[in-house]
Amino acid sequence: MVDIVTENQLPLCLQLKDDCTFESFYAGSNAHIINIIKRAILSPHDEFIYIWGRKGVGCSHLLQAACHFATLHQRASLYLPLKQQLNTNILQDLERTDLVCLDDLDAIAGDKLWEEAIFYLYNRIKTSQKKLIIAAQQPPKGAHIQLMDLRSRLEWGIAVQVHALEDNDLVCALQLRAKKRGMQINQEVAEFIINRVTRSMSSLYLTLEQLDVASLTLQRKITIPFVKKILKL
Length: 233
Description:
This protein is of the alpha/beta class and 233 residues long.
């Protein structure tokens, strides 16, 4: 039997966020990506998916959601954010894990040791019939990877772009996340927020968390005057 590291044994930077699930991800035009990931996780064959999109569109959320989904289906998984300056030794034996998700590929581009380590991990995962999902801000050909063998591997699988949401979808996404947190935010307030905060999902969710904490502390409903006060607008 393979020994799998449990979630509470992992460093904090590697632990999944509880709210990063497919159910809390407002997909909009990206709905097909969720279907692709789910099918790959449940497939009996080796699978490789490369997702890419600019910072804040939700790539990290999707990778963590993939791990949560794998857990629900009794698959072992691991989420690794490469921007955390991890040691390449962490990739050893990961071909025994059903699903490996590598986030922030851009962070190791040009690093010979890391590029070689990921190349060999890719090959081991394929041989072991496991799954690998990689996320980056650029498509495979634009990822600035120097190792030609790894660059070719990145182009072998399914590559899909995660698109930024339109304004209407941003409002719905914000309201969905608020609902998941037990908050009530009407459309007018949601529109007010997205027109005054950086329009990336990560920034909007951080703002929502700030408002949630303030609302609970002050026992106030989230209204436009309240948002103005808390965000100092």
